[in-house]
Amino acid sequence: MPITSETREAIFLILESALKKVSPPMVSKIDTKKQAIELMGNKPVPYGYDKKIVPGMYFASVAQRKDSVVFYFFPAYYKTDEIKKMAPTLIKCLKGKTCFHFKKEEHVNQKELAALLKHGVKAWIEAGYMK
């Protein structure tokens, strides 16, 4: 059964609310037209093979898609095993390394999501991506 626009909006609002709780210290960009929100670190850092300075290291984002709401969580690249233990319910929606696809509100465990974001912020501070 396809996801309804009401369900998609409800999931988006839950995820958006969780991201807003870590912003600040994270810097957020909101694109209301595309119904997306993105967070990045608050410190300019070198990035890529040429070490070009970027305004902040990408952290996480949420976007609405036709069949789901996607949550990209970049710290998952660095702390994969810890994240699997920390968020067993959310892991069921993980596709690939960093992309969670949510199709039902009950798939979004807010407690696990808050712990995941808190752990990610800590990882970003340790990596030097935040002040």
Number of strands: 8
**Helix-strand sequence:** HEEEEEEHHEEH
Count of discrete structural domains = 1
Shape: globular
Q: How many angstroms does the end-to-end distance come to?
A: 45 Å
Average pLDDT taken over every residue: 83
Any chance you could write out the topology, listing elements then pairs?
Blueprint: H1 5-20, E1 27-31, E2 36-40, E3 45-47, E4 52-54, E5 58-64, E6 69-73, H2 80-86, H3 88-91, E7 94-95, E8 99-102, H4 110-127
Antiparallel strand pairs: 1-2, 2-5, 3-4, 5-6, 6-8, 7-8
Helix pairs in contact: 1-4
Looking at this protein, list some descriptive labels:
two-stranded antiparallel sheet, 131 residues, globular, alpha+beta, 6-stranded antiparallel beta sheet, Aspartate Aminotransferase, domain 1, 26% strand
Q: Can you offer a commentary on this structure?
A:
With 131 residues, the protein is of the alpha+beta class. It has a single domain (5-127), classed as Aspartate Aminotransferase, domain 1. The protein has helices at residues 5-20, 80-86, 88-91, 110-127, and strands at residues 27-31, 36-40, 45-47, 52-54, 58-64, 69-73, 94-95, 99-102. The protein has a 6-stranded antiparallel beta sheet, with helices on one face. A hairpin with a 3-residue loop joins strand 7 (94-95) and strand 8 (99-102). It is globular and about 45 Å long.
